[in-house]
Every structure is written in C-alpha cells, then in structure tokens.
Amino acid sequence: MRSKVVLACEICHSRNYSTEKNKQSNPARIEVKKFCKSCQEHTLHRETK
Q: What range does the record give for the signal peptide (predicted)?
C-alpha cells in the first residue's frame, strides 16, 4: 500500500514537496536532493512525520 509523505528542506525546514512511497518495501525515511524555493538552491529534503 502506498502512502503520501511530505518532504521538507533540511536547511530552512520548508515543506516543499509531497510524494508517495511504499512503506512495506521501503520502511526507512526518504532523502532526496531537490530545489528549495526559499533557499534558491538544491538542498537535501527529508521525509517528515
């Protein structure tokens, strides 16, 4: 079953992106490098609770 997750910037903590993931096959938190509109640069975005 896929569930919605929210990705937040590690520098400014803005919640910029949302995506889906399969919690059974990937129980760990997602970490993706994406563009942050607030920081105006590519930063690490992590899954929030």
A: none
